[in-house]
Each structure stands twice: as C-alpha cells, then as structure tokens.
Amino acid sequence: MKLRIGVVGGGLVAQAMHLHFLAHMSDRFELVALADPSAAVRDALKRLYDLEAIYPDHEQLLDGTTLDALVICSPAQTHAAATLAALERGLHVFVEKPMCITLADADGIVEAQRETGKVVQVGYMKRFDRAWERMLEGMPESAESLRYIRVVVHDPEFGPYFGPGEIVHGSDIPADVLEVGREQMRAQVREAVGADSQAVITAFEGAFLGSMVHDVNLVHGLLERLGEPLPAEVIDGDWWNEGQAVTGSVRLANGSRWDSAWIQLLDVYEYRESVSFYFAEEVHSLAFPSPWLKQSPTVYEASRARDGARVVESFESYEESFARELAHFHDCVVNGVESRTPPEQARLDIDVLTQMFVKASSSE
Known about the structure:
about 375 residues, about 25% strand, 10 helices, 14 strands, six-stranded parallel β-sheet, eight-stranded mixed β-sheet, about 40% helix, alpha/beta
C-alpha cells in the first residue's frame, strides 16, 4: 500500500534527506504536497518533485489535500500545532525532532495519539542506524557492571557539506510570518524554562532540544535495553558561548555517571560524534559521521579482554538511517508494527533535557 504524503517545511532536513528518500521510495510513498512559507522554496520543490499542490502553511495543506500521513520538518515551535492538527484529521504523523518544546505540548501529543490510535513517529534516525542496532544486541545483559557513559559531539553544522545552490533558501518569507514564528518560539521557550533571551533560545531550543536530543534518545534506548530505570537522575547541566556549547550529566541507578557535551564549531570543518559505554570488562562505542553525508557509515566497536589479549569487534553498514526510519514509518502505518520512536519516548527526552537546562540556569 502506498501512502499519500504531505510534507510541512521545505528547509534543510527536508531538502537534504526526507524529500529525497520519500521520492525514491515510490513503492511505499506517493509524495503529494508541500507547505512552506517561502514561495521560492515551494515553487522550486514543486518543480523538482512534480508535486500535486503547494501551500504556505500546514492548515491550508491539510484542508486542501487528501492524505494518509504528514511529515513535519518545519521549525520546532510549529511541531505541536501541526502534529495535533494532522491527528485531528485522522492522519498518521512523522515529526522531526524535537517533537515539541514544552512538556505540556508533549503531553498533548501523547494523549492525542492514544485517543486517535494513529502512528506518531519522532524523527530520531540514529535509532535506525544498523551500528546502533548492533550495539544494542552486543552489550551485557544488564547495567550492573556499567561504570561510565561519555558522549561528545562537535559540529560544524551544514557548511562543509553543501555547495552553492544545492539547498534552496527562502529569503521571501513575509515579515509578519517571521514575527509570528519568533513570538511562538519565545513564548514556548519561556513556558519551558522561564526565560526567552536569544542566548537562552539558542542554548535550550537549538543546542539541548535541537542537537543533544539525538544522543539523549539513543542513550535512553541503550539504557532501556540494559534494564536501567528511566528517567535517571539529572545531576548537572551547563551552557556557555551564547548557547553554542552545552553539557549535561545524569546519575544512574548503580551510581555510575553519564556525561554529554555538544559544541558548535562552525569554523572547524570537522564533525565528530562519539558515544561510549564503559563496563567493568568491556567497552562499547559508536562513532557517527555527519548526518548530512549519505551512506557514510557509523562505526560500532566492542573491546574485550580475551586469552591475555585485547579483542575488538568492529561493525559498519552503508545503509542510510534516514531511509530506514521512513521505511519503518510505512511499516507502522500499513502493517501495524510498533513504533520504535513514539511520542512517549520523546517526552522523556524533552523532560531530561529541560532538567539539564534548569540545572545550568540555577547554578548561574
């Protein structure tokens, strides 16, 4: 069964990943319509993907098109409204991370999904990386011997990965639409953490919820597999450099610690992301490439002592996790497969990241 798909938001992740894979997975999806406030963006993407219709916002798209599902790639402050509107109309939803900004909106989405019975899948593509799956299978049976978790990401964003003209940018968005979006962002960040300066927005919405959320989610999945009670206790958080560097720390049930850091380094053309689980007798780690590099493998390594020597298992796959998560979404809708990244999971991630930010603010 093909799903008729509408896409909300024609920005970077939509152009670089989702539209590309939706169009190429034509046995599963029929890419029908797009909403974006930029006429230049929506006109260019209509031509490129031969879309039936284009609209300036999600409400007009939902009113004007017959769909089975909605893929939401618009700015984070619009996610909750678009998700709830789609569920009200009986559609399934794939929504990019973060699912939303406030815990109240997260609760609203969780409740609406339960009431409608429709699929809501959050765009955590790292949960569909085959190296992550291999680590999930390869770790010990429990967290009893877990000693430490370390996550470090430094990120040049998209600068090194796209040439001029590869991504269509919309400089023609109406001023009133931009101002409404800015006010929505300020209001939601203020509701979430009690402040709304530009540095706070950059740190909380951009760094914690927009970037560190990926690693919090994948670590939560690994901890769940180990039987670790979640949520674990958030013990620290910090941010600096106008919100372009953030850290957070968690205490696990056996007393061990999990530290995460995300640093934006726009002038260093290098992306590095490492996730390491240190057990008493083995170490399991993931090294991710930039998400903008298609078919570039994540490397999983498991290191153990054996027969007086160090034995290392290494695994990498060239399957693209962005494609695999969309195939999973199709299976959830058509075949009733349980969603791997449901809204309850995203709610947990948002809660932990909010606590990290509040810890940072309370320590100032």
